[in-house]
Write a structure and sequence with these properties.
The protein is of the alpha+beta class. The chain contains two helices and five strands. A five-stranded antiparallel beta sheet has the order 1-5-2-3-4, with no helix packed on it.
Length: about 160
């Protein structure tokens, strides 16, 4: 009978050992679950931050695209304004319509009439010819030669300041 009792004790010890191992196993599983939960929470936090960063980046890219389009539009406008305001060489193009234009003139004249000079003046363009708005005496015409070298349209007048 002693032998059976020992066997019971041995079985009891084995059961007790299994319970200890089982308890340790459950503790280990619980610790791993807590680690997994922390990692999951951290992953969710990082995912949330990533979404926010991507959203901000997308907004910034859209803003930059808008600014690039605005820049492109303004550059085209500047090019148009420069073209409209530039001095046009007469060898390149003459005005398409008759009228008054701002011109650069190269004058060859005797000293009594001011000598050689370059200046800006308003002249009338009519039928392929440049003319002053007023008539010059015949004696002056033989003493000087004005050559229009460049032209551009007259600037628009300011009607806001007029009473």
């Amino acid at each position: 009978m002693a032998r059976g009792k020992n066997r019971c004790i041995g079985t009891h010890r084995a059961d007790r050992g299994k319970q200890v191992i089982k308890a340790e196993f459950y503790k280990m599983v619980e610790r791993e679950k807590e680690k997994d939960d922390r990692l999951y929470d951290r992953l969710k936090e990082l995912e949330s931050k990533s979404v926010a960063v991507l959203s901000a980046a997308t907004d910034r890219i859209k803003e930059m695209a808008t600014l690039l389009e605005e820049n492109k539009r303004l550059r085209a406008e500047i090019t148009e304004l420069r073209e409209r305001d530039r001095w046009i060489p007469v060898g390149e193009k003459l005005p398409e319509e008759s009228g008054k234009y701002l011109v650069q003139v190269s004058r060859i004249a005797i000293e009594e009439l001011g000598g050689n000079s370059n200046f800006v003046r308003i002249k009338r363009f009519m039928g392929g010819e440049w003319a002053y708005g007023t008539h010059s005496p015949a004696w002056i015409n033989g003493q000087l030669k004005d050559t229009v070298t460049h032209w551009k349209p007259l600037p628009a007048t300011d009607t806001k300041g007029a009473d």
